[in-house]
Design brief:
By secondary structure, the chain is of the alpha/beta class. The chain has a single domain (10-213), classed as Phosphoglycerate mutase-like (Rossmann fold, 3-Layer(aba) Sandwich), CATH 3.40.50.1240. The chain has seven helices and seven strands. The longest helix is centred in the middle third of the chain and has 16 residues, at 128-143.
Length: 214
């Protein structure tokens, strides 16, 4: 789907690093909050966006996302909006609680399929196009009628899926240049039914600007 114009810019944010010493697929399991580094990334994110004219901070309901969104919302004097549609890709529920290293044995061929052709996963309860549509619909709902840019805090694959969807790039690029923990990606609308990526910021690298934005 495409969003109506004019629309404010959006900031797509991946949550900070998670406290996950056993290296399991945490999916939407409870009890997976930010690590100490993740909390520092959330504070850095708040400092990076605190002087922007943000109209709303919208977050996935999962703990790691809420903990990432809260410092920014507090700095801005806003209440974070909990949006269930920003939650993790439901594909991960199939693997929840399993160590990443054990996936090839527990689910033969599935991790390889996810890495090699993520658009075609017959075992996934939610397809990648469905994920992209779900995220895009959530973005559309929250930018409508909002004054100023909107920050969306979500998870790696959902952020990447809606990023590709809005910029009209193939979803098969899911694993290309994925956002790291705490990454912020700024998208701006155009006169066409397509958004452009104008800035990327990482907590440990600072801001970079795509050539088209210079």
């Amino acid at each position: 789907m495409s969003l109506g114009h004019p629309s404010p810019a959006v900031y797509l944010v991946r949550h900070g690093e998670v406290d996950n010493p056993d290296h399991v697929v945490y999916a939407d399991l409870p009890g997976f909050g930010l690590s100490s580094l993740g909390h520092r990334q959330a504070q850095a994110l708040a400092g990076h966006l605190a002087d922007r004219p943000i109209g709303a901070v919208v977050t996935s309901p999962l703990q790691r996302a809420v903990e990432t969104a809260r410092p920014l919302a507090t700095r801005l004097g806003l209440d974070p909006i909990i949006e269930p549609a920003l939650t993790e890709w439901s594909l991960a529920r199939r693997w929840a609680g399993v160590r990443w290293e054990s996936l090839p044995e527990r689910f033969p061929g599935e991790l390889e399929a996810y890495l090699e052709h993520p658009v075609e996963l017959p075992f996934a309860p939610e397809s990648l196009p469905e994920l992209a549509d779900r995220m895009a619909a959530a973005v559309a709902r929250h930018v409508e009628g909002t004054t100023g840019p909107v920050v969306f805090v979500s998870h790696q694959d959902p952020v990447q899926a809606v990023r590709l969807h809005l910029t009209r790039r193939p979803l098969g690029l899911l694993h290309h240049d994925k956002p790291a923990h705490g990454t912020v990606i700024r998208l701006e609308p155009t006169s066409e039914p397509r958004w452009v990526e104008t800035e990327r910021w990482d907590p440990d690298q600072g801001a970079t600007f795509p050539p088209t934005a210079r």
